[in-house]
Specification:
mainly alpha
């Protein structure tokens, strides 16, 4: 009975090999992060990679805030201006700042 069964081996898994060039990971907020660094070159000194840090760098927060406003159908220039105001003002007044500007 066992001799009636034919055991087939599955072919080895093959994965495509990169041709020596690895693509950089790009995120949607990268455009706004570059614009933030053009406007505030001093912020480049802020360490973006800290193993024990919970707070993302300010440029990343700026980019995320601009994308958040663009999802709410705000024009890109206005979204960048509002995110800039939120970056410059303290956190306690930040919420009132950008909601006032949206109205």
């Amino acid at each position: 009975m066992i001799s009636d069964f034919v055991f087939y081996r599955a072919p080895l898994a093959t994965f495509p090999r990169p041709d020596g060039k690895l693509k950089a990971i790009s995120l949607p907020e990268d455009v706004y992060i570059k614009k933030f660094f053009q406007k505030y070159p001093v912020a480049k000194g802020h360490d973006a990679i800290k193993i024990s840090a919970y707070d993302p760098p300010p440029a990343h927060l700026f980019g995320l805030r601009v994308l958040e406003f663009k999802e709410q159908a705000v024009i890109e220039e206005e979204a960048m201006a509002i995110a800039d105001v939120c970056f410059l003002c303290p956190e306690t007044t930040c919420c009132s700042c950008f909601w006032f500007l949206l109205l």
